[in-house]
Amino acid sequence: MINQLQQKYQLSLLLLLGVVAVLGVLPFAVIRYLEGNLIAAVIDITLVLGIIMLVVYAYLSLHIRVVSIVIAIFINTGVVVIGSANGIDSFLWIYPVFVSTFILVKPVEAFIINTLAGIALALLSDIFVIVSLDSYIISILMLSLCSFVYASHSAKQFSLLETLNTVDALTGAFNRRAMSVDIKAALATAERNGGKPMLAILDLDYFKAINDKFGHAVGDQVLKDFVAITTSQIRQYDRLYRFGGEEFVLLVPQINEHYHTFIQHLRTAIKNALKTPDGKEITVSFGVAPWLPGTTEDSWLKRADKALYLAKNSGRDRAIFSDE
């Protein structure tokens, strides 16, 4: 699962921000207009419409990270403009805007944006004949630091949650939940862009005999070693998932005409490196299914599983390709 949970979380925050912009800022635009303060009313309306359009664009395009940065810069620029134009009446908007910035972007980015906005407001606004400049500096500094600490802690917790949600606790491979999401994404990309992904099911040969002879603790270590060896041989954007027991699924998002050689090289590398405690090699059988037009998640796994069945029945320690 590649950033799926985080993407949904960020999108929900952007949607919430859009609602807050309408409910929180729009009434002030009406009030400013009725008071005859057309400049402030126009600025407020511009902020509301700009945020709404950016949120809609993020929802449609899913360019959430880029849109979040743009919105963060946009609302900070807006609070500087409205604070400079409307004086003390709009000065307090700086505090919720600064906090919102830490929700939208990474903590370090938010701190930099807030600092620049705070300096710009100090240079352009004339409110400091009323408000103490020292108090202003200390208050926004404390606000930004507290928000920075909270946002940093939240980012770490979110990262831990995403790991728990997508990674197999024993082996460190991705789990079936992550596999399902990634397979759907790979299929959608293949149908849209004409790519050629490949899926393989890997099964450790005679794994039950290892458990029976050496115990489950050794069996668990063999699975960990297998994942470590396999991930060291595949590319960074290839994904290995624990399918269940000693079965694993390998998803290769893009392959070329040499994929047979790639699989055979991987099988040999595992065979040479993976050993039992008494030094005997552990072999792996592969069922490999290159993508075909019209493939679904279920049919893809079934093709790979059928190829694996043939590999097992043909003597193990081999790779069978469904297109042969």
Automatic annotation (TrEMBL):
It is an enzyme of class 2 (transferase). Its EC number is 2.7.7.65. The keyword Transmembrane helix applies. Signal peptide: none annotated. The chain crosses the membrane at residues 12-31, 38-60, 66-85, 92-121, 127-151. Keywords: Membrane, Transmembrane, Transmembrane helix. InterPro entries: Diguanylate_Cyclase (IPR050469), GGDEF_dom (IPR000160), Nucleotide_cyclase (IPR029787), Rev_trsase/Diguanyl_cyclase (IPR043128). It comes from the Bacteria. This is diguanylate cyclase.
